[in-house]
Amino acid sequence: MTPLMNDNVNRRGLDTFDWCFLGIIIAILTIGILSIYSVTNSASSTKFPIYLKQTTWMVVGTLAFIVAAGIDYHKFARLSYLLYGAGLILLIIVLIMGKTSRGSQRWIPLGPFMVQPSEFIKIPLMLTLAFYYGATSRKGWLRRLIIPALIVLPGFLLILKQPDLGSSLGFLSIFLVIVLTVGMKSKAFGFIVLAALMLFPFAWGGVWGSLHGYQQDRILSFVDPNSDPGGKGYHGLQSRIAIGSGQLVGKGLHGGTQTQFKFLPEGHTDFVFAVFAEEWGFVGSLVLLTLYVIVLLMGLEIAYNAKDITGSLLAVGVVAMLGFGIIVNIAMTSGLAPIVGIPLPLMSYGGSAMVVNLTALGLLLNVKRRRLSLS
Amino acid sequence: MFDTSRQANELAEIQSRLIFVKVGLLMILVLLGLRLWQLQIRDGVYYQDLARDNRTRSIVLEPPRGLLFDRHGELLANNVPSFQLYLSLEDVQDRDLLLSKLPEYLDVNVQAISEKLARKRRGRVKIKNGLTLKEAALIESHRLELPGVVIQPEYQRNYPLGTYASHVIGYVGEISESQLKDPEFLDMQAGRIVGQYGVERTLDTHLLGETGRKVIEVDAFGYSKRSLSIQPPLAGNDLYLTLDIRLQRLAEDLLGKEAGAIVALDPWNGDVLALASQPGFNPNDLSGGISPQLWQQLLQDSRHPLTNRAIQGQYPPGSTFKIVMATTLLETRTMSGSDSLSCHGTFPFGKRVFRDWKRGGHGTVNLTKALAQSCDVYFYKAGNQLGIDPIATYSRKFGLGAKTGIALPSERSGLVPSTEWKKKNRGEPWYPGETISIAIGQGFLSVTPIQMAKMVSIVATNGRVVQPRLLKASRLRRTGNLKKEPSPTFQQLPIALATFSKIKEGLAAVVTKGTAKRAQSKIVSIAGKTGTAQVVALKDDDDKSEVAKKHRDHAWFVAFAPVEQPKIAVAVIIEHGGHGGSAAAPLAKAIIEAYMTEGTIKIAAPL
After folding, report:
1. Quick check: A375 and B2 CB within 8 A?
2. CA B270 → CA B204, B315, B323, distances in Å?
3. Which pTM was predicted?
4. Does some domain include residue A2?
5. Span A219-233, pLDDT tens digits
6. Count of domains for chain A
7. Range(s) of the domain holding residue A206
């Protein structure tokens, strides 16, 4: 193990890499607020418009970022089982007495706010998996795969039951990427794929049956949205029109007709990328995509240079979580993936996701800053 | 537990696999970038066209307004279906051509419409209300020639009673440009029908309901092909007013062609039983989008039908003000009820001589007789002794000079003058001679009919001050529950019961043996006070019967009944009606009798 030792040995200070990292995050957050402002300011009449709410959540998220970056991640890792257990309990509470909205039960009211435990449990999950692999030998696929899978399963099922297809897939993606990185022997991998193929029809029946009607519609319409432009494929089509009509340089702030005339639904949440792409065009979209790519690559760089397995896998988990959100969200708004309701990290409106994503980025910085210290 | 060499080995393995993660990630992101290129650059023009020509339309669904009922559940306002003509601007191909074609099919003002459309590019704009069936059929059969023209059935406000209670009910109309900027209408979109006058306006938030929304897909002519999603509207709350519509109709019929106002209150809880102002208007004419000609005609009418005289008319109270004067005298102990003085028909003051309405005077008068006969000299002397400021103080206690706060727009406050007022507004001191005029309800003093009804209510209830109210109960659409308005809070004036007894004795005598014998009823005991408010000063030798109508005095009568246990308080004014005792008092009597006998009629009252 010979990570690229650079000259900086000052553990407390921030180096150029850190400043770049922070700068890019701030740039993405700013783009997000701008887009939400563009969607909501013309229609909104409340005294506390959504873009201000989102800004408030960013402040909360920044505090979480500082805490997550400041305290040695090994301390978090040692608490991970406890945190994960607490997360599972919250998910059970959601199922029993959570707030129902649009047919699914996802929120716990906390004073004036709505907390979404399915977002928050992602952090304990990463910590738990990182800590588990850091402390356990990988000999045998029972230890390597089955036990971690058993850790993930209850959380996954509880989120799926809400039902929140998007979040449950996001949850699963963290596990899958970490497992892939830890490495499965090719034989084991082949076995899993074979088993999955054989079980697929049964799983499909079970999963498909548990989906809500609108989710089934969304997946069906994904197959051929043009056949039914007003019906089931409505959101997807309007989103693609928004993105496409942005052309090279976009229509400018507040200029997006798809957004301003409300053809595009959920402009401030799941379809915020379409809002941005319509108003800032291909140039803007590419700049944004590049910013995201840089964040993810920096995350992988941190994983590569981490001083231990726990740190490395923690960084991989963060990259997996953000990468999944970015890829699936942009793919779904641009018509490459079914619309499953996955917010765009750091941009879509939502307090829980904002706090969780900033916490995760804080952990990333944490791992990076402790790579030189001795355990 | 930590095996350093194992850690090092496994970490190295993880590092080697990170390359695959990185490559996979980059490949997917490049794929996304390519997809964006495909959408925005390669097919950008195609999507640009789709965006410009988007075939989905979002339509606001107007909720039916809440219904209005009187206290017994008689319908005052409802909604009837009607056809509205809209332009769906996205679907209009040639705006000028279309506008030039429209007059072939229906009666529209092209000029007004093109002004309305001037700054709009998108959305639906209403261009005509209440199409006739024939017009609707004609448009419908020519819709291929009129792309973008859409007929939508909607609710239109309807007032089954026509002109009755028009000033209380008010009317509705499309939200105006200036209202759209008002924070009160913050959530509103152009084209919404909101209350513009009367309770329609002041209770608008109850009546409005919530709009729904329908997303439809349209064909090339803007006609709905299918609906994609519907969020139904929520109707407004139904309201029960305190009005008793039978009393209201009677009051308006009694006024007839005379200009004037009648206000009847339940003195104990402030319920407005009737609030009539004549002449009125027909709210049905105004709610369906009034023609500019008719509107001009209403505005320029010299009889001011749009003025609610009951709350906006400011008149000198005349002798009805002697009720306040008498109370002030007793409370300040300036004179006692038994003190008498002699009246010879004149009151010399400085170089001037103030005359009593009765030549030769009333002889020896005490307070009761002074009220019953409305002796001016008695009150001239009283006013002179009191001075203006105590009079002003007690006037305000009775609610004069201030708005009653009734839930109707544009109420006026009237005027109670004082030394301070005069200094501030006229920059002059108060002259004692002016107090003499005030003492008989003339001079600077002015009041509204509803203030007088409130004043006499306070006397009837021995000092209970309640705000007149119009809302009795509401039926909430969301729950279906009937919500009664809570009993109003009241305030007790610190005036002795003995004072009120003395005043009531005088007011009863007004009807039994005084100036308002015409108000005497066989079924109920009535107490009241006449007033004759001067419009212009007449010379002694003018023959009053010959005076032009517009110079004749306003006739007042304020009353309550029954004297012993009051149930109703009434104020009547007839503009240029002449004497209060002959012109106004019989109307008050008719109202009171109708109200007192109504109790015996069986009514299916929901309240």
Report:
1. yes
2. 21, 22, 20
3. 0.61
4. no
5. 655 544 443 444 446
6. 1
7. 16-369
